[in-house]
Every structure is written in structure tokens, then in C-alpha cells.
Specification:
Length: 130
């Protein structure tokens, strides 16, 4: 799994939320790094911020989804830009899901369960405790 966000706070939040799953998670601070990492390593899912310096999340998503080597990677946009137009742009770029920030834990866990079937049982047990 890859988490791409220029905010250290968001990366720390995602690190804490993903810890119970014991995933192999990498982190990138910008779109250029994310594209390079996605080409170098196979990821099941990428959580991708939209607003970043340099290449934005829409551009990153489009590059990932247009490359045959990374096309099957699930891309989940994670952004404070959550208007219907922003979600349409994400869909147009090829994203598989679009979550608004701040993302609720239930929504994040449901998304993890959707794109990472091996994590479904852990996600459901965490949701049951809530």
C-alpha cells in the first residue's frame, strides 16, 4: 500500500489507522515520488491526496491508470476537495474511490475492506468495537 500526501499530519493519521492491519505501507510526499514508487513496486492500493505541489493527484492517478504495469492498482483519492465536480474529476482521472478529508474511521475501514480483501476481517472487527 502507498499513501501519498504532502501533509505530515495526514501521513501520521494514515500510519496510525493502518497499523492494526500490519500492511507493508510506503509513504510519499509528492506526486512525482508516487509515480516513481508505483513503477518500482507493485501496490494493491494507493491513497492519494489531490492538492500537492508539482504534480497533483489527478495527474498522478491518470499516469498510474494509463500505465499497463500499474493499471490494476486501486487508487483512492483522499482530499479536502470533495465537491461533486472534484469527485467527477477524480472519476475522470480513473480513481476507484474518492474520500473527503477529514475521513471518518468507518469510511476508511470500509474502503480498506473493499480494496484489500485480506484486510476485511480486521476492518470488520475494528468496526464492531466502535
Amino acid at each position: 500500500m502507498l499513501v501519498v500526501d504532502d501533509s505530515a499530519t495526514v501521513r501520521a493519521f494514515m500510519r496510525s489507522r493502518l497499523a492494526p492491519f500490519r500492511f507493508d505501507v510506503d509513504y510519499a510526499e509528492n506526486g512525482e515520488a508516487a509515480v516513481g514508487m508505483a513503477q518500482a513496486k507493485r501496490y494493491t492500493c494507493i491513497f492519494l491526496d489531490v492538492v500537492m505541489p508539482g504534480m497533483d493527484g489527478y495527474q498522478v492517478c491518470k499516469r498510474i491508470k494509463s500505465d499497463p504495469a500499474t493499471r490494476e492498482t486501486a487508487v483512492v483519492m483522499l482530499s479536502s476537495k470533495s465537491s461533486p465536480f472534484d469527485k467527477f474529476r477524480g472519476s475522470w482521472a480513473g480513481c476507484d474511490a474518492y474520500l473527503g478529508k477529514p475521513v471518518g474511521e468507518d469510511e476508511l475501514l470500509a474502503t480498506i475492506g473493499r480494496f484489500l480483501p485480506s484486510a476485511r476481517r480486521v476492518a470488520l472487527s475494528i468496526l464492531a468495537r466502535a
